Amino acid sequence: MKKKLTAFGKELRRNSQLRTGLILLAILLIGAIGAPVFATHDPFALYDSIRVAPGTDGFIFGTDALGRDIFSQVLYGAQTSLKIGVIAASISAIVGTLIGGIAGYFGGVVDKVIVEFINIFVMTPSFFLILIIVAIYGSDIRYVMIVIGLTSWPSNARLMRAQAISLRQRTFIKSAQAIGVSRLSIMFKHIIPNGIFPIIANTTMQISGAILTEAGLSFLGLGDPNIVSWGQMISAGKTYLTKAPWISAIPGIFVVITVLTFFLIGEGLNRFISPKMENNK
Amino acid sequence: MALLEIKNLNITYKMKDKSVYAVQDASLKLEPRDAVGIVGESGSGKSTLAMGVLRLLPKTAVTEGEALFEGRNLLTLTPDELSQVRWNEISVVFQKSMNALSPVHKIGKQMEDVYLIHRPKASKTEIRERIYELFRIVNLSERVYELYPHELSGGMMQRISIALSLILNPKLLVLDEATTALDVVTQSQILREIMQLQEQFHLTRLMITHDVSVVASTCNKVVVMYAGRIMEKGHVEDVLVNPKHPYTQGLLKSFPSFHGEKTDLRGIPGSLPDLSVRPTGCVFAPRCPYATKECSERIPELKETGNGEHSWQVACHRNGR
Amino acid sequence: MSLEVNKTTMEDDENYVIQLNDVKKWYIQKKVQKKDGKTERKQQIKAVDGVSFSLKKGETLGVIGESGCGKSTLGRLLIHLEDPTGGEIRLFGEPSDRLLRKDPLKFRRNCQMIFQNPFDTFDPRYTLRKILMEPLKLHNIGATPEERLDLMLEILEKSGLTPAKDYLDRHTHELSGGQLQRIAILRSMLLNPSFVVADEPVSMLDVSVRADIINMLETLVKEKNTALVFISHDIATTRYISDKVAVMYLGRIVEMGPTDEVLHNPQHPYTKVLISNCASLNPLERQEAIEIQGEPPTPINTGPGCYFAPRCYCAEEGCSREYPPLVDIGGGHLVSCCKCCGV
Known about the structure:
By secondary structure, chain B is of the alpha/beta class. Chain B has helices at about 45-55, 80-85, 105-120, 125-135, 155-165, 185-200, 210-220, 235-240, 245-255, 295; strands spanning about 5-15, 20-30, 35-40, 60-70, 70-75, 90-95, 170-175, 205-210, 220-225, 230-235, 305, 310-315. In chain C, the strands form two sheets. An eight-stranded mixed sheet of chain C has the order 6-7-8-3-9-10-12-11, with helices on both faces.
């Protein structure tokens, strides 16, 4: 464990993408978790100062058309965005890993059926699927997370399947089988842990995707009205883009930063794990 | 004059936190038309030695000493001069030479390209003639010209590699584990062909292998290496029949015999020493059954043993005692 | 396919640990580009094409042959890492697929395999402790944690890793091939199998450590009276460890019998070729190798007739008509050649 930590430390010094990503993530996390502490105003309260430019009257990022404090909204919005991103991507990772692992390791007919199933999902335009679901079941944030998760797993499943297919040929898998380990536990004990790294990297990038999707939904007015989210803020400011551009621009910048953060971490992890783990030893 | 003379060659891999002494103080001579086999286990430095002489090692490897090819020191040649020597005069066949071939081009086309690089003015028919000739030499049919690499078996691929290495009539052929990955029957077929080639084209051959039987059956001289050092060298009839160095003895005993009684099979206990530590004495001392105090204190030099026609060199303190 | 083998199996089922009766493994390859440019839809690759033999307790059978002759596939079939396409494998007289279905753990415990590549035999993420614990837990060996720890330390010590305690939490990449292969062998033998397959266990190791591994395997097998199938392309090593030898060519056994009888009095032309091409260590005894034509073929669309006939130096017209049966020419020496059995 100690060795792994030092290896990771070494990697951090060398890998600037991973380093920048993690620093940005730390800042975002502090902001999101500490929102109640850092917030200067109640994010839902309507103040008299309407469309005030950033920096005036104690409103750091100014206020929106209804007089809500943008700074506080951004902080609470970070909570929403991170939550959606992480949960949706985790669902995608778990589903993708399981389905891909089963397809790749068990092979044969199971594999063929699952591959076709994956293809169907890949071909379905997922954003429209999400729109339909939201239209039918309402725009509860929980549905949004689950739907995003359940539509983005195919890429993870494909990655895991490829990993499982190549791992299946390795001697240690055959050796475990010969010792008497059951197929299911081989999958959970050997195949998935050894093939998980690309999925971790991919999942981090999917967090960005999920955040963007949620922002897109909210922008179209399909977000959960009971919570603050960056997408809704951008949507709310779009009518005033010429007169008060900061209303949309500030949450927009944060969406970009967050997406970039997870993208950097994902790319950094990718570099860390490929081309070969051995190079880091 | 010797065709290739290696004098006091040292090869060290310089890494961030340590140096690995891969080859130490190696000297050997190849007379024209010799067939020399370098044998050793993994980590013995046999490949490093040959690749170091040809300057095919990565930049982290520092090579010191001299490697005189027909009097010219290969280690100090300019890159241009070196590329003239390589392939024109010295060519190499690796264990996986076939990986060097592009999978999407036909064999014949790729061979043409190689020929054109070194003989830019050659005419189309001349090249074709030469390639067909080479196919005949290595017992391949002319049909191979139109095939892609994946359509060939391992043995055929290795034949192509050998044909490619002979394309410019080199004087020295280096075979680095060239037949290791092949089956017994194919290996012995190819080895026989190589020996015929040597006769036909007056080649000098340097074979690098871990398989002593290959050297025994195809070479006239043998160099035994262990942990970067030459342990014993001389004619195969001397070294392999009457080994003087405990390592050579141990190595030969590790092979089960095919004929006669099933004698006890004995390996060499212990494992290869850490090559990043400079030994104070004989590198084999920690695993040697006869090691004395002297062995761990003083590095033995290669000294003559045997007499007259049957004399060879051994690096062991027990020699001559 | 061979009546002789069948007869004996009927008589004393119990004496045999493992019996194979016409075992086959055919793979189907889709769409193959043939040399003449035509594509063929489906081709059968007969990796193992009718193998029969039986093995008693404590006996060692060496299987030799070139790459692609199906010897590794045979090894995997024997312990059911793959299922045969046809034929029957019996363990102590009972069909092994039934045993595997009835009690997979017991079957696995009974049949063990040692693999070619010791560097890849263990999960690279696992420590030695976890690696050794896996079979102990799975098969309920050792009652208390202390007992298990002792067993694990014993294995490490026997593998030459001392002090054993320091190695328990190391990863496999810190060990040498010889050490890993010893651990693999000891771990398999810990389960007290009645039958072990060793698939080229030393071909990836250095010569000087090979001998020790072979010796260790031999001692353990003799000690525990285990039947061993030793798969190798190295004839000399096989001779050293085996009581019986089977020579395979294109998925079939072409010659089988007591080791020295087969190797020093080979009857099948292929065996003769194989043996004559084995170079000796002694440069003074350079022997004449029998030269044969052609490349080792692939087991696609073989037959009719003897599979070796196209390359055989003494093939006759009759050779390509029918595959010759495996016939006993005396002393349990079985040969499958038209010329030897006088068909």
